[in-house]
Amino acid sequence: MTDTLRARLTDAVRRQGGWSTLYLDLSGDRENPEGLAESRRRSALDRLRAAGADEATLRALDGALGEPTGLPSPFTRYLIAREGAVVVDEPIPGPAAGPETLDVGELPSVAPLIRAGVDEFAYLVVQVTRDGGDIAVHRTGAFFPELETTLTGRTDTLHKAASGGWSQQNHHEHVEELWKQTQGELSAEVDRLVQEVRPRLVVVAGDVRARGLLLDALGERSRALAVELKKDTRSDGADAAVLSAFVAEQVAAVEQRDRHDAVDLLRTRLGRERPAATRGLAAVVEALRQAQADTVFVDVGALADERLLALGDVPWLAAEPGDAGTAPVIGEVGALDAVVRAALLTDARILLAPAGELGAPAAALLRWPADQPAPV
């Protein structure tokens, strides 16, 4: 589970030449959804062809776009391709977060995807019954789980009436022990996945008694991540939308908390005499050139009209040709694309924040104070 969206994008932006980028709302939300999708697809490919996309890459994009997705509307598709191969094909839940992009150039455009979140994180959804449970590993921004597993415990005596010489109390104690054993096995699998996947959130839903047993059995780390939906999502007639809405709410809360904490840290650091933080586009560009930025904040709208130079090697971006040093100049690109690309290539975290909160269109938390040389 190391093939993350960020890893694929980072690999892509290292390579230059012949990239086609497509960001398009292909939701089937009208009377003839199949015809609508076909019309949009043909129009998009024609425009890419006119912009200079090669035929092999157009065929690859056509094949990818023509495959049924089975995704609920609304959704958006982000694809980048070159040399006859689709490198990233990311369906994004919800309507388009910005204008459509149909671009052919030396580099793929990553700006459209930043609105949906490049720095995705994993989370677990665990649905339990008294005789087992299901665990799904999800990643933010993706429709479908990247891993699913089911555990079923012993069911031979779960629903038997007391008989065969058992007392009613002994029967109940035996059944309770089976439930505990089953949830203990399930909790061990959750603990293993928490260690392996490092999720930011564990959502627990399902049978009320099984939920309690599972939560009691979880290890300390898993329990600290767990949030409980106090509804039986596995009973007959349960509404799946209830779980989906709860998960979306919890994921949004994690994202909001992360951004709030990061912006608070930025303000705190900027107030110090020797701040390990900076703000302003020029200052952020310089921090990225030094691989000094740990977290980069951008306001998408505020950077819309700014341009920078993308470079083919370290330091990856520049404001002027004279700043390129020995690195080849690829060309002028939008500032958002240049900043996000450099952040990907220097392993900096990327967060969206309004300029009003940052005090500038861009800002950064630094790996070392601005007035100190890079550590050896």
Give the tags.
Translation, Eukaryotic Peptide Chain Release Factor Subunit 1, Chain A; Nucleotidyltransferase, domain 5; 376 residues; alpha+beta
Structure in words:
The chain is α+β, with helices and mostly antiparallel strands. It has three domains: 5-114, eRF1 domain 1 (Translation, Eukaryotic Peptide Chain Release Factor Subunit 1, Chain A), CATH 3.30.960.10; 122-238, Nucleotidyltransferase, domain 5 (2-Layer Sandwich), CATH 3.30.420; 257-366, 2-Layer Sandwich (60s Ribosomal Protein L30, Chain: A). Helix content is 39%, strand content 24%. The chain contains eleven helices and 16 strands. Helix 5 packs across helix 6. It is globular.
Could you provide a short overview of the structure?
The protein has 376 residues and is an alpha+beta fold. 39% of the residues lie in helices and 24% in strands.
Q: What is the CATH top level name of the largest domain?
A: Alpha Beta
Strand content: 15-25%
Q: Name the poorly predicted regions.
A: 157-163
Please report the number of helical segments: 11
Q: How far apart lie the N and C ends? A: 32 Å
Q: What is the makeup of the main sheet?
A: 5 strands, mixed
Structural class: alpha+beta
The largest sheet has its strands arranged as 7-6-5-8-9
Query: Which architecture name of the largest domain does CATH use?
Result: 2-Layer Sandwich
Radius of gyration: 25 Å
The CATH superfamily of the largest domain appears as: eRF1 domain 2
The averaged pLDDT comes out at 88
As a percent range, the share of helical residues equals 25-40%
Number of domains: 3
